[in-house]
Amino acid sequence: MAQKSTIRNFIDRNVERQLVREFLLSKTERAGFGGLDFQRTPEGTKVTLSAERVGMVIGRKGKIINELQRHLQDNFNLENPRLEVAEIDNPALNAQVMASKLASALERGWYFRRAGHSSLMNIMEAGAKGCLVVLSGKLTGSRNRTQKFQKGNIKYCGDTALQFMDVGKAVCVKKLGTIGCTVAIMHADSKLPHEIRIKDRHEVGLSPLSEVAIIKEGSEELPEPIVEEAPTDEILEEVIEEEPAAEEVVVEETPAEETATEEAVDDSSTDEEATE
Q1: 133-162: pLDDT as tens digits
Q2: What are the CA-CA distances from residue 193 to residues 38, 41, 153, 163, 203 (Å)?
Q3: Angle 6-28/63-75 helices, nearest 10 degrees?
Q4: d(Cα 124, Cα 13) in Å, to the nearest integer?
Q5: Which domains are delineated in the chain?
Q6: pLDDT band at 212 (very low <50, low <70, confident <90, very high)
Q7: What distance separates the 2 farthest-apart alpha carbons in the chain?
């Protein structure tokens, strides 16, 4: 038998993990299934299941979790699987939990617009940076349609979407047909590439800036600038008193009668010259 290639081994392992995820989702959906985390260790494969209600997954005296672990060992090709359960801190920020709740609300008869807006508001109020809710299927009639509800920052593709977006999917089964529910959440602690913050000097261990004049190398120190104080009101009054007063020019006014006699004398002299 020919040896499997490395690519085929990766594909088979991922397919097996997806089957494990679907199995545990169907068994623990009522407990608030939030996702799986696979970790390969020297002892075997460690499977961590995130749930909203941990007690419903563990069961009384660990009965349910032991049964799930036995199913993983018998029915799946996992190397010595060990199942553990972790509690979700904030279920409103878990995409898979919110997608399951949205599908459950639609199955109970909620109108799709009310269910979509309600899920969107709960996620944003919990502190998410952005959210996208997509409903696709027979929402109102016999024909398929897609309705989107979005708010905040959303990344659709690229490394930023893979790194910062948490995506969860669920299926709602109704009489008209199935409705697919997709919820994508960008958490509040995610830092986008274009977001830059300049740190203060004390944050990086530098001393604060001192108010010192910048002097070029090889030049002497510049003397301190001399600032003249503005004269006060008392000094201004003394200066005004010491200045000599301006001399007044007296203009003597000639009386009106003298000017009239002078004009008459001038006229008589001109008449005499004319008779001669």
Answers
A1: 999 999 888 889 999 999 999 999 888 889
A2: 28, 33, 13, 11, 21
A3: 150
A4: 36
A5: 10-88 (3.30.300.20), 93-186 (3.30.1140.32)
A6: very low
A7: 165
Which structure tokens are listed for 182? 């997709």
Instruction: Please give the Cα distance from 63 to 57 (Å, whole number).
Output: 9
Q: Which residue has the tokens 């008449």?
A: 271
3-state secondary structure of 6: helix
C-alpha–C-alpha distance, residues 66 and 181, integer Å: 31
User: In the numeric block, which tokens belong to residue 62?
Assistant: 């660990």
Q: What pLDDT digit, counting tens, does each position of 37-61 carry?
A: 888 888 888 889 999 888 888 888 8
Whole-structure pTM value: 0.67
Q: Which 8-state DSSP code applies to residue 67?
A: H
Residue whose entry in the numeric block shows the structure tokens 């669920």:
170
Q: Residue 222: is its pLDDT beyond 70?
A: no
Backbone angles phi, psi at 135, to 5 degrees: -115, 125
- The dihedral of CA 87, 92, 94, 95: what is its sign? positive
Structure tokens given for 45: 């494969």
Give the model's confidence band at 276: pLDDT under 50 very low, under 70 low, under 90 confident, else very high.
very low
Phi, psi of 130, deg, nearest 5: -170, 160
4 Ramachandran zone, left/alpha/beta (phi>0; psi -120 to 50): beta
Instruction: Extract the tokens encoding 67.
Output: 């049964």
Cβ atoms of 38 and 46 within 8 Å: the answer is yes
Strand order in the sheet with 33-41: 33-41, 44-51, 81-87
Given a contact cutoff of 8 angstroms between Cβ atoms, the answer to whether 137 and 180 are in contact is: yes
The three-class DSSP label of residue 168 is: strand
* Phi, then psi, of 225 in degrees rounded to 5: -65, 140
Q: Which amino acid appears at position 68 of this protein? A: L
pLDDT of residue 220 exceeding 70, the answer is no
